[in-house]
Write a structure and sequence with these properties.
Blueprint lengths: L1 H12 L9 H4 L6 E5 L6 H12 L7 E5 L10 H10 L4 E5 L7 H11 L4 E6 L2 H6 L9 E4 L5 H9 L8 H6 L1 H9 L4 H11 L12 H21 L6 H12 L8 H8 L3 H13 L3 E4 L14 E4 L2 H7 L6 H15 L4 E3 L7 E3 L3 E6 L14 E5 L9 E3 L8
Parallel strand pairs: 1-4, 1-5, 2-3, 3-4, 10-11, 11-12
Antiparallel strand pairs: 6-7, 8-9, 9-10
Helix pairs in contact: 4-5, 7-10, 10-15, 11-15, 13-14
């Protein structure tokens, strides 16, 4: 245990507190068992350490942060570690990278059932492996999905200007008032293009020069290692999965032709649908449907987008379509803020939000023709910084969390 506490102290000593993401306030830290899920690089480890640093003194031994991928856990089990920690009076155990520990969910279940006063927080970057552990921890585990930076958070990190989040309802009701408040502090359009290319993952601020290389490494690890291990993907098909992702990155934002997509990358239609489901589970793509209530894993999506625009700029062979970039940003930010996003269909706006709000996404000259017959409909327009009538700046939808 001494070795773990030494590392705990070292981690805390190097944890910055200048920027604490709003995710901190969305988590009920009083719960007995919490899982923080999210793609690699969104800041889960930092968030856990910041919570400890903010609520415990540096020498407090009632709390312990450890990472399950260290050499310590090659000779020690989670169960034994938790048992020793509790006997020493420990009350809050934070386990990072838990997905790298074999059979982690069974041991966490045993710890949870045995130590009634212990609070446990786990985090993992392998969404596939974390999802697989849910069955063992049913009715015990409360999950929180941690996304990358919102545009609002990026503005704070990049410019030092901090302003409050706004709910979607408030934004739609009084968009210009909010936009004006932001413009008093900075020029959002100055930062927005950079965010779309390189602002979603916080490690951009650590090393900008290798940012896209790091994204590629995460994508390759997910496809080459995690999909074969956790979803029985044949190793020989990993290249086809990468080709599928690249094809998606080159799509213009229209309806999907799965048969054509399958033919182009050389796999069967049903296999393509299965792969798309796995890629969405790994937070690499987003499948959109006109009716999300009746969706099955092997149902053809009506639209496919990459999960976030940074992935789009990293994976596309050429500069991606600006229409695809805009829609990818919009869907990412609305979904991360907890809203249900559905494809609007060809006869309505681009997207239906929470079942009753229609949003058309486009450039500054985008009109209302396509949504003129819709009552609760708006345009999210790029390249504008003020709202007029029902036309709202696209960047403002990045301020919901």
């Amino acid at each position: 245990m001494d070795k773990l506490f030494e590392r705990h102290d070292e981690y805390l000593a190097h944890t910055p507190m200048a920027y604490v993401r709003s995710m901190m306030n969305r988590i009920d830290w009083s719960l007995r068992l919490i899982a923080i899920k999210g793609p690699k690089g969104v800041g889960k480890s930092t968030l856990m350490l910041q919570y400890i640093k903010a609520h415990y003194s540096p020498d407090d031994r009632h709390v312990l942060y450890c990472s399950a991928d260290t050499s310590y856990f090659t000779t020690h089990t989670l169960v034994d570690t938790a048992d020793k920690f509790c006997k020493m009076g420990g009350s809050h155990l934070f386990i990072d990278e838990v997905h790298k520990y074999e059979n982690w969910s069974r041991e966490i279940k045993e710890i949870y059932d045995l130590h009634k006063d212990l609070h446990i927080v786990v985090s993992g970057s392998s969404l596939l492996q974390i999802n697989d552990g849910q069955a063992d921890l049913s009715r015990r585990l409360i999950e929180y999905q941690m996304p990358g930076l919102s545009f609002r958070e990026y503005l704070w990190f990049a410019s030092g200007v901090q302003f409050k989040t706004i709910s979607l309802e408030q934004l739609l009701e009084k968009p210009n008032a909010y936009c004006n408040d932001v413009k008093k502090e900075c020029h959002p359009l100055e930062f927005f293009p950079k965010y779309l290319e390189e602002g979603y993952y916080p490690y951009f601020f650590e090393n900008e020069s290798i940012y896209q290389t790091m994204i590629e490494a995460v994508v390759n690890y997910t496809i080459d290692v995690e999909l074969p291990r956790y979803r029985n993907l044949e190793v020989g098909n990993t290249r086809k999965i990468k080709a599928l992702l690249q094809a998606i990155s080159s799509m213009v934002p229209y309806e999907v032709d799965i048969s054509k997509l399958s033919k182009n990358i050389g796999i069967q239609r049903l296999t393509t649908l299965k792969y798309l489901s796995h890629l969405e589970e790994a937070a690499l793509i987003r499948r959109l449907f006109t009716d999300i209530q009746s969706v099955s894993d092997l149902q053809k999506p009506d639209k496919i987008l990459l999960d976030n625009p940074n992935l789009l700029f990293t994976l596309a062979d050429e500069k991606p379509s600006i229409g695809t970039v805009r829609e990818t940003f919009f869907c990412n930010q609305l979904s991360a803020a907890g809203h249900r996003v559905e494809y609007g269909g060809l006869k309505s706006g681009d997207f239906r939000i929470d079942g009753n709000i229609i949003i058309e996404v486009g450039g500054k000259d985008k009109g209302f023709t396509q949504i003129r017959d819709e009552e609760n409909a708006y345009v999210a327009a790029d390249d504008i910084d003020s709202a007029t009538f029902r036309k709202i700046p696209l960047w403002a939808f990045g301020c919901l969390y």
